[in-house]
Write a structure and sequence with these properties.
By secondary structure, the protein is an alpha+beta fold. It contains 1 helix and 2 strands, in the order βαβ.
């Protein structure tokens, strides 16, 4: 696998776990994914925004 050509993806509850390694590698100076495919990601499990009501 070429670490410089990685794309991460996830749908719904898988969106958070897919976004996490991208943020972690960015923060730690590692290879950053070239793209993310997050389909309807559930990134905030509190369901507090007005659009959730």
């Amino acid at each position: 696998m070429d670490a410089e050509r990685v794309v991460v993806g996830g749908k719904s509850a898988g969106g958070g776990p897919a976004a996490a390694p991208a943020l972690l590698t960015r923060d730690r100076g590692g290879p950053v994914p070239i793209g993310q495919l997050l389909v309807c990601p559930m990134l905030d499990d509190r369901n507090d925004p007005c659009s959730s009501h």
